[in-house]
Design goal:
Elements (H helix, E strand, L loop, with lengths): L6 H31 L3 H10 L5 H26 L7 H16 L9 H27 L3 H24 L30 H17 L2 H11 L1 H6 L4 H25 L18 H7 L7 H21 L6 H14 L7 H7 L15
Helix pairs in contact: 1-2, 1-13, 2-12, 3-7, 3-10, 3-11, 3-12, 4-5, 4-6, 4-10, 5-6, 5-10, 7-8, 8-10, 12-13
Amino acid sequence: MSLFSSPRFAAIARETGRALTAVVIALAVALVVIFATSADPGAAFRTLLTAPLSSNRTIGLWIDDVAKLTLTGLAFSLVFQARQFSMGVQGQVYMGGLCAALVAMSPLGVTPLAIPAAMLAAMLAGAAYGFIPGYAKARFGASEIVSSLMLNYIAILVVNYLIRAHLAPAGTGQLMTAKFPEAAIFPAIVPGTRFDLGIVVALVATALVWFLLYRTSWGLKLRLVGHNPKFAEYAGIRSGVIMVSAMTVAGAFGGLLGAVFVQGRAFGNLAQNFDGNLAFEGILIAIVARSRPLAVPFVALAYGYLRQGAQLMGLRTDVPTEMISVVQAIIILLVASSFTLPGRAALARLLGRAPRATPAPEAAK
C-alpha cells in the first residue's frame, strides 16, 4: 500500500481539507462584514491578507504570535488527549512568567545561566499549578473546569498585585518591572524584530510533546485513558495517576509559555496582564489540530497570520480589530462540529459514485 492510499494519509488529508474549508468560509464571512463596515473594503481586506508580510517588523510580530500560540496549543492538546478539560493554561502562564521574572531579576539574571534557569523555574511553577486541579479532581472529584478557572483568577490577581506593590520601580507609577538584564532576554534571530529564540523553544516543545505522546509508555497510557477509559481500567492502568500527570506536564508547557512571554523581545520584563488573553486562544489551536502535536505549529502559523492581519487591519483601516473574533468563532464552530459541505451526496450520485461512509474517529498522530 502506497503512502497516499494509507488510512493515515487519508485522515490527514480529510482533516486538512476540513480546516482549510473552515478558514475559507470564515474569510468569506469576514469579507461580508468588511463590506458592511468599511468605507474602503477592498483596501481593508487586502490589509487583512497581506499586512503580516509587509515588513521584517510585521513578520517578526507574526512569528512571535506563532511561537506563543504553538506553546499554548500544545498545553491544551495534552489535557484534551487525556479527555480532560482543564482551562488552567492562563494561570500557569502567569505563575511561570512570575518565576521567570524573579530569576531574571536575581543575581543569576546577569549570567549565561539566566535564560535556561528562568525557563526551568517557569516550567516547575506551571507544573505545580497544573498539578493542583488534577489532584483535586482525582482525590476529591472536583471539576477541573471550575477549579482551573478559579486558579486562573488567583494567579492573575496575585501577579498583578506583586508587580504593582513590590516589583515595579518605586515612585514611577509603572505597572511593570524594570527591564531585565540583556543576558536574561531571548536573543533576536532577525535583529530589530520580535523574531527571537521563542520560535525555537516552541518547535523543540512540539517535538518533545510528540515524543512523549507517541514514543513512550506514558503517552500510550494517556491516549488509551483518553480514548477508551474502561479498557484502560481493565488493562490495569491507573487512570487517576495518568490524568494528574497529564495536567502536570501540560502545566509545565503553560509555565514555559510564561517565560517566552516575559523573556521575549516583545517584553523583556514582567507587566500586568501581559498575556493579552492569548493563552486562551490555544483552545482554538488544539481543536483545529485535533490535539495532534505535529499539527499544532501549522495551525498556529495560519491562525497567527490571520490574527496579526486583523490587528494590523484595525490599526491601518477603519475596520475594528474585533474582526478576528468573528473569524475565530466561525472556525471553531465549523471544525468542532465536524461539518460537511452540503450537496456532496447529490454530487456523488450525479457522478455515479456511491457516497462514502463517514469513518470512525481514530487516534492518529
